[in-house]
Amino acid sequence: MFVGEFEHTIDAKGRIFVPVKFREKLGSDIYISCGFSGCITVFPAESWEKLSEQIMTTLPAINGEKPKRSIFRRTQSAEIDSSGRILLGTKAREHAAIGKNAVIIGMGDKIEIWSAERYEQMIAEEDLDEIKDLYASYGM
What we know:
- The chain is α+β, with helices and mostly antiparallel strands.
- The protein has six helices and eight strands; from the N terminus they run ββαββααββαββαα.
- The chain has helices spanning about 20-25, 45-60, 65-75, 90-95, 115-125, 130-135, and strands at about 5-10, 15, 30-35, 40-45, 75-80, 85, 100-105, 110-115.
- The strands form two sheets. The protein has a six-stranded antiparallel sheet. Strands 2-6 form a two-stranded antiparallel ribbon.
- The longest helix has 14 residues, at about 45-60.
- The mean pLDDT is about 95.
């Protein structure tokens, strides 16, 4: 399970260092996708395969083409290099508005990479009472 929050910088080539505890869980084959929340989502192969299967079997063949196209075209396979970095493509960095500073957070079965500015804004807007009520509505 991926948990925690780490601040890192993006180098001139668009690479970001992945924390050791995340690298160990990600494995060698990863998938990088432009998340719907305005961040970059990084999946270990197993999580991506489960999500892909769910997308392919759940969305209808006709009406599901647009959402399938949206997620699959925004995703690429990647590897972690020998220095523990992943390359974030230009389009992905633009999508997430990531410049020099980024925040990597654990999200259970995946990680997210946020621009530091967007992440701080999201945290500032976080309503803990609303989140607590949501958990309570599910009996947690």
